[in-house]
């Protein structure tokens, strides 16, 4: 397709059932890196519920045709560009297709490819068509038998989905393994792995007493980094049994780690393939964040066994059916691992982290050219819709069912969903119907969450009648200044669960009674907003209350309410809802930072608000709060999030404001930061527990603030000692970053020696080298040496490889996506660098290129002086790229 053409559009409303079904698949692979022969035998029959077609059209990409046989005789086929058509197909036929693919030449990492001498696959969404010709769509579900043959010395381990039923020796030093998966699945869940790998094994019994074999396969030198992944898998199995009554269904469950992978992980039935980043961990090489991510993503992929595999999605427009639901499940799992079901403060840490990501990633997506509902209406390239909206907002939509129905009601809905749809390809409407029918609710209006794009806004007004002791809360929903992309799909008011509490004069929760109720009930009530405007009246309110709005972030909306600074300070100090206590602090900091940014943009004098500094002092010294919660409370809103809130984003002004406030907080609270650092040391062996991780987080946050001082001697002393004495990656990397930031603050070089030492220690560990690249890509830079020049130089480093997605994300993505002040340099150098890398990656790996391309999609939201160089960079890319993935992004950005 020429790069100047708009890609063809696939629309949800055009869905039709497949004309043919495939009941069984038998695959035989003769594995060789340059040319792998694939013999594919499928049992095909007409779909009685579809339009009758005379020919069967299969899709295939980058394949060499060898032969086609139908019921034992040569088949009449036409092989075209990307397709194979079988003519005059009877109602039922056994079709055998033989072809060749080239795994070692496959830089896209979709289909069958080679990484570090081993074979791996990635088939979601449409990678299976790079392996063999097929009806490569999720509503075609089949049972699979897979035979793998390969050189035994080069590829001693041969894995595929399901259960191992046979293995043995072959002539010429080769061997084979035969696998059967008894559960029907779509082609996107197929997987194979072959190579030199070793496994950590464990056997467990499920709740029904069945014994299961668990394996985590890695390259031999990484075996000592698999214990946490195995523990996370076992925890996931136990949690799913307890929370949802769902057992592991296969005899074994396998995880395989690969260093070259486009995604985080893939839920192939019984054979999950993971990016090494989300499997390998020990104290020396993985941070607390890495440990937490591994636990969450191992859980996510395991939970897909039921929400994605046993029940899959009918078509790719229903992607959030499996991804939004499974993200919700992994969020609930992680919260349970942090604090059980009863510890609200511990669970709130996870909730706050998830909402921060949602606001930073998804809210911006909702207001840009790629805005789409969680169930998109159209796409040119489905890979572009593995988005924050589908995943993160999709999870929030699932969470709203639980908020409205309660945990028991949600479980009833899940039970009915599996009862109705186990073994089939379902839709978002099927899930909604199960939730409604199981609980006797009408969720017809709730459908709008699936079909309307944009972030809703709820404006709140209140009125207190002291004489009548009545407090009225009026909620008005709208989309505010939603993007033009979002507006066409807005069809009416949403069904919004809006949780609220009322604080009395001393900051104590009131028990709440709505008008018409006989008695006061709990202190948090979920109001169901279903109209454009509704008023809810509380009675027996003996004093004017302070509202605590949208507790626990009960819906993915923006709340508009004119809190005073004093009111936010009360919520920050007293709100019983941990999320809203954090939210109050963030609102105070956001107001201050946006005010400072406006003054910085106008070259006016900057001055910090003493009240804000006092609030931070109270939080920092409040020993009743857990260290992990205090850390979250004391982290300022990110530069990216602040820029999103501006009419014309000014990254330089935001950076100046945020750095100024950090320095003011460092200076005013220096003694408190020093004391907090000492109070939260974690001597002894490293433990990735929530308590120990929280203490390290607060300690290292204190160190980061101290590094902002004009005289960072204390920070340099502490960071140098911490770096030298660290027994874990969390402390070592935090110390290194503090030294780099102290260098930027003081205009001196404290970090260069530590950077060299860090690389020397870990140059043999690819994941730690990724961190080394990322630290440098995210540093502040100077006018004499801007970060873009550092990044360009690092691209020539022997350890950099543009074909490795992890390395690209570590260096290029970290600079373009996580260093806004440097990326948005006024001279446009960051944009020129971005354009070069998008074009280079487009030729190698379109999926990775498309994700990088999205970093300029919201160019119109920036200040005028930045828009023109952004537009030029986008135009330059549009003239050169060829993949559907990138062309769709760039066309939408420029449209």
UniProtKB/TrEMBL annotation:
Residues 454-562 form the Peptidase M1 alanyl aminopeptidase Ig-like fold domain. Residues 566-895 form the Peptidase M1 alanyl aminopeptidase C-terminal domain. Residues 229-449 form the Peptidase M1 membrane alanine aminopeptidase domain. Its EC number is 3.4.11.2. Keywords: Aminopeptidase, Hydrolase, Metal-binding, Metalloprotease, Plasmid, Protease, Zinc. Pfam families: DUF3458, DUF3458_C, Peptidase_M1, Peptidase_M1_N. One of its GO terms (molecular function) is zinc ion binding. It comes from the Bacteria. Residues 106-189 form the Aminopeptidase N-like N-terminal domain. GO terms for biological process: proteolysis. Gene3D superfamilies: 2.60.40.1840, 3.30.2010.30, Neutral Protease Domain 2, Peptidase M1, alanyl aminopeptidase, C-terminal domain, tricorn interacting facor f3 domain. InterPro entries: Aminopeptidase_N-like_N, Aminopeptidase_N-like_N_sf, PepN_Ig-like_sf, Peptidase_M1, Peptidase_M1_dom, Peptidase_M1_pepN, Peptidase_M1_pepN_C, Peptidase_M1_pepN_C_sf. Its cofactor is Zn(2+). It catalyses: Release of an N-terminal amino acid, Xaa-|-Yaa- from a peptide, amide or arylamide. Xaa is preferably Ala, but may be most amino acids including Pro (slow action). When a terminal hydrophobic residue is followed by a prolyl residue, the two may be released as an intact Xaa-Pro dipeptide. It is an enzyme of class 3 (hydrolase). SUPFAM superfamilies: Leukotriene A4 hydrolase N-terminal domain (SSF63737), Metalloproteases ('zincins'), catalytic domain (SSF55486). Belongs to the peptidase M1 family. NCBIfam families: pepN_proteo (TIGR02414). PANTHER family: PUROMYCIN-SENSITIVE AMINOPEPTIDASE (PTHR46322:SF1). This is Aminopeptidase N. It comes from Paraburkholderia caribensis. The gene is pepN.
């Amino acid at each position: 397709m020429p790069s100047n053409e708009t890609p063809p559009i696939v629309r949800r409303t055009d869905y039709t059932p497949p004309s043919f079904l495939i009941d069984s698949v038998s695959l035989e692979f003769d594995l060789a890196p340059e040319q792998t022969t694939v013999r594919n035998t499928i049992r095909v029959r007409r779909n009685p519920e579809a339009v009758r077609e005379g020919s069967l059209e299969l899709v295939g990409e980058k394949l060499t045709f060898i032969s086609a046989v139908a019921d034992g005789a040569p088949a009449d086929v036409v092989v075209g560009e990307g397709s194979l058509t079988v003519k005059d197909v009877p109602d039922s036929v056994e079709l055998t297709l033989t072809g060749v693919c080239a795994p070692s030449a496959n830089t896209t990492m979709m289909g069958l490819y080679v990484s570090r001498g081993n074979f791996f696959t990635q088939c979601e969404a449409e990678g299976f068509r790079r392996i063999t010709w097929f009806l490569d769509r999720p509503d075609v579900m089949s049972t699979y038998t897979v035979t793998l043959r390969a050189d035994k010395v080069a590829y001693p381990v041969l894995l595929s989905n399901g259960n191992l039923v046979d293995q043995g020796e072959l002539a010429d030093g080769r061997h084979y393994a035969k696998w059967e998966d008894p559960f029907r699945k779509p082609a996107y869940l197929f997987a194979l792995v072959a190579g030199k790998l070793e496994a950590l094994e464990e056997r467990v019994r499920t709740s029904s007493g069945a014994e299961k074999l668990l394996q985590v396969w890695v390259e031999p030198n990484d075996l000592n980094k698999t214990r946490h992944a195995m523990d996370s898998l076992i925890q996931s199995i136990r949690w799913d049994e307890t929370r949802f009554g769902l057992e592991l269904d296969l005899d074994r469950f396998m995880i395989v780690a690969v260093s070259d992978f486009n995604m985080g992980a893939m839920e192939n039935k019984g054979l999950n393939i993971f990016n090494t980043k989300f499997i390998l961990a020990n104290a020396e090489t993985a941070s607390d964040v890495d440990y937490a991510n591994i636990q969450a993503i191992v859980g996510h992929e395991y939970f897909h066994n039921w929400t994605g595999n046993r029940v899959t999605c009918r078509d790719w427009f229903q992607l959030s059916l499996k991804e939004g639901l499974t993200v919700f499940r992994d969020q609930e799992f992680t919260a349970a691992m942090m604090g059980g079901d009863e510890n609200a403060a511990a669970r709130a840490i996870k909730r706050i982290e998830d909402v921060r990501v949602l606001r930073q990633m998804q809210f911006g997506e909702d207001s840009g050219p790629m805005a789409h509902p969680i169930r998109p209406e159209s796409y040119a390239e489905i890979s572009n819709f593995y988005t924050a909206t589908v995943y993160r907002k999709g999870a929030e939509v699932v969470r709203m069912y639980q908020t409205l129905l309660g945990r028991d009601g949600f479980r009833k809905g899940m039970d009915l969903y599996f009862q109705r749809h186990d073994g089939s390809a379902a839709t978002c409407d099927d899930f909604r119907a199960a939730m409604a029918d199981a609980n006797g609710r009408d969720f017809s209006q709730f459908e709008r969450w699936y079909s309307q794009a944009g972030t809703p806004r709820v404006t709140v007004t209140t009125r207190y009648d002291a004489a009548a002791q009545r407090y009225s809360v009026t909620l008005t929903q709208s989309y505010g200044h939603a993007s033009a992309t979002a507006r066409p799909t807005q069809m009416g008011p949403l069904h919004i669960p809006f949780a609220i509490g009322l604080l009395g004069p001393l900051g104590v929760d009131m028990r709440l009674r709505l008008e018409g109720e006989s008695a006061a009930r709990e202190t948090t009530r979920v109001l169901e907003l279903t109209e454009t405007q509704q008023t809810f009246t509380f009675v027996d309110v003996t004093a004017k209350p302070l509202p605590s709005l949208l507790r626990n972030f009960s819906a993915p909306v923006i709340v508009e309410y004119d809190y005073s600074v004093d009111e936010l300070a009360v919520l920050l100090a007293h709100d019983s809802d941990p999320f809203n206590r954090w939210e109050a602090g963030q609102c105070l900091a956001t107001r201050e930072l946006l005010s400072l940014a406006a003054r910085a943009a106008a070259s006016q004098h900057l001055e910090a608000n003493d009240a804000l500094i006092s609030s931070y002092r109270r939080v920092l010294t409040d020993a009743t709060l857990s260290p992990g919660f205090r850390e979250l409370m004391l982290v300022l809103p990110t530069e990216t999030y602040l820029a999103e809130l501006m009419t014309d984003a000014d990254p330089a002004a935001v950076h100046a404001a945020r750095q100024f406030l950090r320095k003011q907080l460092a200076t005013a609270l220096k003694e408190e930061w020093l004391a907090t650092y000492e109070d939260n040391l974690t001597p002894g062996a490293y433990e990735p527990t929530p308590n120990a991780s929280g203490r390290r987080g607060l300690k290292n946050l204190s160190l980061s603030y101290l590094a902002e001082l004009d005289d960072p001697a204390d920070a340099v002393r502490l960071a140098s000692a911490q770096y030298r004495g660290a027994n874990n990656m969390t402390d070592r990397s935090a110390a290194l970053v503090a030294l780099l930031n102290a260098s930027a603050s003081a205009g001196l070089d404290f970090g260069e020696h530590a950077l060299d030492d860090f690389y020397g220690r870990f140059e043999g560990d690819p994941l730690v080298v990724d961190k080394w690249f990322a630290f440098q890509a995210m540093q502040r830079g100077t006018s004499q040496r801007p970060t873009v020049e550092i990044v360009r130089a690092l691209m020539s480093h022997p350890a950099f490889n543009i074909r490795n997605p992890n390395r690209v994300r570590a260096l290029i993505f970290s600079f373009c996506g996580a260093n806004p002040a440097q990326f948005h340099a006024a001279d446009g150098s960051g944009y020129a660098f971005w354009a070069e890398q998008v074009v280079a990656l487009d030729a190698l790996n379109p999926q990775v290129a498309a994700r990088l391309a999205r970093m300029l999609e919201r160019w119109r939201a920036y200040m005028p002086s930045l828009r023109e160089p952004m537009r030029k960079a986008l135009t330059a890319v549009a003239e050169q790229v060829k993949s559907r993935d990138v062309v769709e992004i760039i066309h939408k950005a420029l449209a």
